Amino acid sequence: ITSSIWTPILSIALQALLLSSSYGSLEPYDLLYNNAVEAFYRNDYKDVVRHMEGALRSYAEVRQTKVRCRLRCQNQHPFDSASMDLQFFDVVLRRSYCQNECIEEKVGTQSMHKISEDVIQDFHRRIPYNYLQLAYQKLKQLDKAAAAAHTYFQANPESVEMDQNLEQYKALEGTNLDHFVDREARPHQRSFSAGVKLYDNANYEEAISLFEEALQEYYRADVECRALCQGPQRFEEQDHILYRYSLYQLVSDHFTQVLHCEHECVRDLSTRPGRLSPMENYLPLHYDYLQFAYYQLNMVEEALACAQSYLLFHEGDEFMTENVEYYREAIVINISLRSVMTDMTRGNLIIHYPLSKWQPLYCKAGRGSFFVGGHSLGTTAIEGLTCFLILCVCSVGGPLVYDSVQLIQNSQALNGTQRVLLDDVMSVEECAELKNLAHTITMAGDGYRGKMSPHTPNERFEGATVLKALQYGYEGRVPLKSARLFYDVSERARRIIESYFLLNSTLHFSYTHLVCRTAITGQQDHRNDLSHPIHADNCLLDPEANECWKEAPAYTYRDYSALLYLNGDFEGGEFIFTEMDAKTVTAQVKPKCGRMVGFSSGGENPHGVRAVTRGQRCAVALWFTLDPLFRELERLQADEVVQALDNQSSQSKWDTSLNINPKDEL
């Protein structure tokens, strides 16, 4: 029995080792790449293009061949029936033989395509496109040069030289925006980004089409990525001179590495070229966008399916769980009619039903569907009429806590999400007192990084923290009442933001800063910069990729932001919201005493400050976090100071009320 099992296994292994290379042959891409580089240094740009384009085609063909062959051989030789060790090894060897034969039939002997790690990294970094854009430029093929330059820049956004080249290409005759394409764009990321833009413009129907396409492309790319993991693996431990392994350990190590590689596919597919960190919540986000887009088009069943799919990734998510319940209730509801009366004037039936948060879209009786106009149906209605309903989504914030505070604009009026503009958060007297405090305690620079003019050389930037104000007050260098006002006003702002945005957990201070920006006389003519460039508060804004990357050095733990203005007697200095492109302004806020703008800190709210061209602009800048681990240390120290001052004040009042003579205490 043993002999009968091992004979075919050894036969297959022998065939795999002796497999001939008499099949088709594909020129290795590392050889073509080296030829192209050599041609570049001898200024033979036609050869550069010929060899480099050939290298890119060869690289793509080898990759696709491996994917096709490995998927085919996996299907032909599944592990399902391998219940014993020898059967398992039999499947491994048969699958290996199948893959080798398939790949070598398409591209030739695999040893020809063993590429050095340096060349592989060059292709991952898209270095060939740098050579191509220069070669096409020399050959006066500007459309192809623009495409190559754009493709390279997508994976190397830090390249100042390529950024300048792109600007030059855009200014040249013979090029247009259609030429600036990413030749290596991943279909699933391209469709997703395009879908987000349409979604942001409320074009839900076309956005749905692109999101669905992105999902199909993502899962296709996931299958391909996992197939590429099935090849030979390398362990650093195996390079050690004392490394000893048995057959079982070797096979175990191999498949452990395969599993690790497959796990990394999730990160790889959600990471844009040139970025270290993946897009946060990338795959589930497709279903989040889809559930709301379908809902906007009254396609409630599809919205429900997408919401349920989202919960597969984030089980128990409170917001999405509520949506699922809404959608389930909204699909079909039988309304028991309270009464049916005939409108004698119009000859129609008037349907009366209990008023609720639901609005009917259309009702269906036994003979068809009838759209509802108000409460009127143009046909005979029956008891138990079935109506398809949709939940009214109202963008209303929570209470403002303080009676004096006025809501000026909500998210809709500010053309965005998670935004609010409020007035009368402070009185005129409080504004004046804090501005006087700022003139005394603020120091040049940003207050915590030591940069004198962190945003523009045309303005003087000064700032101070709450703790510094309290220290100055305790030392008698400023009125303690003014320092305490700074502390109290910032707490007032925190409570308002926490309440208005209906946060379920405590909002903590992340950083509190009393800041003033002053226009420098003689430097305002012909200014074209901003007082504070467009940015997001918890991620790195990437206008080219239409993304915001939550990675260092961004303050990724910040969740909400607010700016409380102290004055408006200056020129310029308007606060602006923009689109992700950092150019298209969606809303503008003119500062004045007591006005506060609040918003979520993520990429949904890029913002900046227009140049202050005359006078001084002062505000209390606040950043908040929902994570108590990232509470502002100086704020905690300030809390202790305030507590001590309050205790001291209480003790003083107690001592005064008793009117005790110190001598009596002796």
From TrEMBL:
Residues 1-24 form the signal peptide. Its cofactor is Fe cation; L-ascorbate. GO terms for biological process: collagen metabolic process. Belongs to the leprecan family. Its EC number is 1.14.11.7. The gene is P3H2. Keywords: Dioxygenase, Endoplasmic reticulum, Glycoprotein, Iron, Metal-binding, Oxidoreductase, Repeat, Signal, TPR repeat, Vitamin C. Residues 512-626 form the Fe2OG dioxygenase domain. InterPro entries: Leprecan_dom (IPR056585), Oxoglu/Fe-dep_dioxygenase_dom (IPR005123), P3H (IPR039575), Pro_4_hyd_alph (IPR006620), Pro_4_hyd_alph_FE2OG_OXY (IPR044862), TPR-like_helical_dom_sf (IPR011990). This is procollagen-proline 3-dioxygenase. GO terms for cellular component: endoplasmic reticulum. GO terms for molecular function: iron ion binding; L-ascorbic acid binding; procollagen-proline 3-dioxygenase activity.
